[in-house]
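Reopening: structure tokens for the dioxothiomolybdenum(VI) ion complex, inputs below.
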Amino acid sequence: MVQKDLQTEPESLDRVDGRPKVTGTATYSAEYAVGNLAHAVLITSTIAKGRIKNINAKAAEESPGVLAVISHLNSPGVPGYPPAKQPAEPAPVGTAFRVFYDELICFNGQPVAMVVAETLEQANHAASLITIGYEIATHQTDFEANLSKSAVALSVQRSKNSPFQDYGRGNPEAFDAAEVKIEATYTIPTQHHQPMEPHAVIAVWEGEDKLTVYDKNQGVKSAQGNLAQAFKLARENVKVNAQFIGGAFGSGIRVWPHTVAAVLAAKKLKRPVKLVLGRELMFTSVGYRPYTVQKIAIGASKNGILTAMNHEGTGQTSAYEEHLERTILATRAMYACPNVFTKYRLLNLDVNTPTWMRGPGDATGMFALESALDEMAFALHIDPLEFRLQNHADTDPERNLPWSAKSLKECYQLGAEKFSWKNRLPAPRSMQKDGMLVGYGMASSLYGFHRHPSKARAVFSRKGSVVVQSATMDIGPGTGTAMTRIASKILGVSPGKIRFDLGDSSLPDAPGQNGSSTIPSVGSAVHVACEALKTKLLKLASEIPGLNLQPDQMTIKNGRIFNLTDASGGISLSDVLKYHNLEQVEVTEESKSGAERDQYSMYSFGCHFIEVHVSPLTGEVRVKRVVTCADVGKIINYKTARSQSIGGIAGGIGMALMEASVMDHRFGRYITNDFASYHIPVYADVRQIDVIYVDKPDVHVNPIGSKGLGEIAIVGVAAAIANAVFHATGKRVRDLPITVEKLI
Ligand code: MOS
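Re-run output (same inputs, fresh job):
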């Protein structure tokens, strides 16, 4: 088993774009210097349901600097929107909300008008002069009050093979017959992605049929496709640029109405338009992790073998679109249990549509499952780690397939050792330090393996430098750094001579950065492209007479090709090109999955061990120490991987202890819509974190043996914290976040 950390991996690269990021020269979407720019401000509805009766925009239109006030009354229209009325039933996920389309209001915060002016200040002032009359209808935004209306999603009813169909294996009565039973309900509130950089767009039309957008998103190619479809343009006539992203966590996976609104305004005015969402608008414009209630029933034998798991999850979505997530799916695959039944329901409310947020579904589902496992271990008087080991799934119990690779047991072992789990006294409230109650908790994690077809271009130029390109993204993990490392190792060229281009829709096709798929997908494409480039370079070298380069002996190192038997001989790569009178050598390759997906079940696995201190007086919880261990196949670059794991833990701390979007249901409006009221972890909340990787290549998943890391970093963290809080205090909190009033 390989175990490394930063100290033992001295080759780990610093971020290739670290300098521009910290010195402020990196250009983010709102910062592009586009000439003749007009500034837009959105006006959003103050009611949750009903219709717009009138918009009084006269004062705004006459206000200094104002170029236009745009609404459904005068929108140039989005040609790709369906011509019919808004559908009577919720549309499948991914169906765009139609901005400035008609007078209907579907949620509080819906964009209803937009002011465009010469300056932002003028636009803001004019926006304050607009009055809108509404006809108010009764809205339903309260999840708990409406829970009885939840149902199987329409899209699931219509799709027999949907994974969200009711699922069962084994005996449905197994739970009733179990020797020991746990039944509980777990709730997570709505949580919002809070990237440092708010969403922003600059839309530029070049003539009638060419569009360029600088847009904060997680997928330039999918945004290109979406905008081309919406505005009925040839794909190649839409350019999407998103080179630097200040965090996204899922909020940038889709093209949201505000981006379309900016494109509409630019079209109407025939000049570039910039729109930046303020923090308040981030709560209603770009999705969120949905409010979710889960019922779990677990049965086990007295000696600690799982005999039944029933898991029912209900999530919220909007009235106009379904959003489904993996909430109950992990329960089918995580443990060796013969009798498992799951149900998934949706509740449509008069709110905006949720979206994926880091570890979507799994972070939610594993909070419930891993809390319930802890409750069962306690009931059985078995150590929580031992209980999980006893029920380890050696093969995938859902699909009856072997795992492509699974080193979860090693994760448990490495994590427990590093954490000193053996020092845990079993009884709650039995450990104390400096007047604080001490709790040790742990949880497992998993995340499915996602790989999408991806292309990469690799170019070696006579100067000795390499450019690798792919229309992939970097929302924070350090994509360019990892890809540089892959290219450097294969091509034998130092990282400093390699440039990796991303975030531009004109580059070779690649998926967006989501579902922890970038390294598995684009990393593989970069790998095969660089291998192909290397083969080409070696062949060119072997054709040069007098060098005596032997095909089975040749290697590249430090920019030279030579025979392994004679490191002093050979030729520099630049001279190979010179000899052949070439300026550059270029390849473009594609990499994608094959039949292996049907032969193996593919997941990343991991676990978290967490120590909390809880004040017996105030109920304040401090996460003192985290040991996180993951098996994500081969680690490409330790330094950036570790940083990604720490980010996931920070997100998990927020999920467990702080984050909740609170709505005033009288108005269907969030009252937490800034950082004063929506709390996220700061440095003081994120203490010692040890990150361990098993770092064994998974030879079945792709040519680089590497699985995804971004999402598994957060999955299970909230449960590990809740379990530690229970161990510290004896109080089981089943509704997140675990705030002080729940502990005193
Ligand atoms: Mo992730 S929620 O797929 O950005």
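DSSP finds 19 helices and 29 strands in the chain. The longest helix spans residues 518-542. Marking as resolved unless the reporter disagrees.
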